[in-house]
Task: inverse folding
């Protein structure tokens, strides 16, 4: 399992805790060892550009997920020996926006950032929140994964 992290923002963050959290999520979700995910930390300008270009929404946001596979929660293919890893896609996070959001909510930046990592990866794995039922299912999974990783639900 590989978690790639690129930090393209002005205030670099420590990468290893984010990689460990992502690996924990993938492991707990039962992903095969041959799975790859990329976490991208970007500034507000870049996030605004992505949000406008790909989501057709103005302004920045906290997290975007760009899955490369169409997956359903809990149903993940297992690459065979010699096959390339399952590339799940990219999770793009704007830490500055996450920090502003955490301040507004009165929660810690670290807990809010952890939630964004988990939330983004769950989107890559087929979770969504388009219906109330889907949102409840996704939130319950987020809570469980954050608890397992030793983080608090913000």
Result:
């Amino acid at each position: 399992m590989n978690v790639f992290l690129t930090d393209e923002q002005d205030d670099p963050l420590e990468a290893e805790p984010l990689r460990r959290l992502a690996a924990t999520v993938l492991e707990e979700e039962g992903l095969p060892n041959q799975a790859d995910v990329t976490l991208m930390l970007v500034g507000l300008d870049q996030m605004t550009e992505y949000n406008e270009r790909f989501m057709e929404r103005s302004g920045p946001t906290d997290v975007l997920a760009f899955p490369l596979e169409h997956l359903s929660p809990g149903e993940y293919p297992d690459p065979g020996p010699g096959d390339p890893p399952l590339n799940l896609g990219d999770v793009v996070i704007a830490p500055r926006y996450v920090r502003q959001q955490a301040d507004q909510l009165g929660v810690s930046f670290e807990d809010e950032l952890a939630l964004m990592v988990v939330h983004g990866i769950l989107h890559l794995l087929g979770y969504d929140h388009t219906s109330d039922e889907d949102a409840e299912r996704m939130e319950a999974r987020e809570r469980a994964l954050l608890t397992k990783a030793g983080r608090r639900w913000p």
